[in-house]
Write a structure and sequence with these properties.
Order of helices and strands: HEHEEEEEHHHHHEEHHEEHEEH
CATH topology of the largest domain: inorganic pyrophosphatase (n-terminal core)
Number of domains: 2
Largest sheet: 6 strands, parallel
Shape: globular
CATH superfamily of the largest domain: inorganic pyrophosphatase (n-terminal core)
Radius of gyration: 20 Å
Strand content: 15-25%
CATH architecture of the largest domain: Alpha-Beta Complex
Distance between the termini: 39 Å
Number of helices: 11
Bound molecules: manganese (II) ion
């Protein structure tokens, strides 16, 4: 069983480098920093390095000052185990995987169904709500007691990946784990407001513009939105609005699949596509067809091309899977 191998790997190594995927969010951050805490309790050395900075809204996270942003001069860093959390393939770590130039043991812990099993040890559980829930299990397997900081981190991760306990990935074990975390008297409203109800006014105005452009196809079974470069230009956007846009889409009667097309600001003719499904359509398969991946009910991919062409192609693919 992989969990036993994970425990052995942690016990057998001394110095760990921890990372996750680009576009950091609650589950990535929660599992990284909670994993860091577990290692510290065991007297191990650990460093957390990500491609990105701490995203807006996560200032409340304990241990956030342990997060290091990737820089080229980190290439000399020494470690004996490279830990990748909540990340379906190595390229999603951005540049960080290059730090493992000496090909040290890779420990891959993830819950994406599209995981590429790139590790020397792969603990992949696609039916678990979040990587944070897996780290909770790991803390039990290591026989470690939780503490309040770790509880905040794991709660934030589970909250993020379950859409606040609404998605089909929530199990009775999820709630059992959360009930243990809540024994530490977490400030739930504060965590929720920081992550979801903290939108700057200007960003909210942009959100309303995106929502105004809502369209439907296939007799309302597909709902889509798009964000063009000119909507983002000259704006310093603090908030990742994607989750909110997709949530509005999901709330629509008869909507089976919700899609958000976003022109990449940094690269011309590159479109980020995010999918949400209400269950019937496996959007991981659709995202994988276009080189991405994720979960059955939530996935994403990046496609080269003009937004109109990309949209047509993607919508046709979804229509095929509705038949
Ligand atoms: Mn996750």
């Amino acid at each position: 069983m992989s969990l036993k191998k994970v425990v052995a790997c942690i016990k057998n190594n001394k110095n760990f480098l921890i990372t996750s995927h680009t576009n950091l969010e609650g589950d990535a951050l929660g599992s990284e920093l909670a994993f860091y805490n577990l290692l510290k309790k065991l007297g191990k050395a650990a460093t957390v390095i990500n491609e990105d900075n701490l995203p807006y809204g996560y200032d409340f996270l304990p241990q956030k000052n342990k997060l290091i942003k990737f820089k080229d001069n980190l290439k000399e860093i020494k470690f004996d185990c490279f830990v990748v959390l909540d990340c379906s393939d190595l390229s999603r770590t951005g540049e960080v995987y290059r730090l493992n130039s000496e090909k040290k043991t890779i420990l891959n812990i993830d819950h994406h169904i599209s995981n590429q099993k790139f590790g020397n040890i792969n603990w992949v559980e696609p039916h678990v709500s979040s990587c944070s829930e897996m780290i909770y299990k790991l803390s039990k397997a290591l026989g470690l007691a939780l503490d309040r900081d770790t509880a905040i981190l794991l709660y934030t991760g589970i909250l993020a990946d379950t859409g606040s306990f609404r998605y089909s990935n929530v199990t009775s074990f999820t709630h059992k784990a959360v009930s243990k975390l809540l024994k530490f008297k977490l400030d739930i409203p504060h965590i929720y407001r920081s992550v979801y109800e903290n939108i700057p006014f200007a960003d909210m105005k942009l959100l309303t513009r995106i929502l105004l452009g809502i369209k439907q196809e296939a007799k309302g079974r597909i709902v889509w939105f798009q964000v063009k470069r000119d909507m983002l230009r000259n704006k310093k956007l603090f908030f990742d609005l994607s989750e909110h846009v997709l949530s509005f889409g999901r709330a629509i009667k008869d909507a089976q699949v919700v899609v958000l097309f976003k022109e990449n600001l940094g690269v011309k003719n590159e479109i980020r596509v995010n999918f949400r499904s209400q269950g019937k359509v496996d959007v991981n398969r659709i995202a994988q067809f276009f080189g991405g991946g994720g979960h059955k009910a939530a996935s994403g991919c990046t496609i080269k091309g003009k937004i109109d062409n990309v949209r047509r192609m993607v919508l046709n693919k979804i229509k095929d899977s509705l038949k």
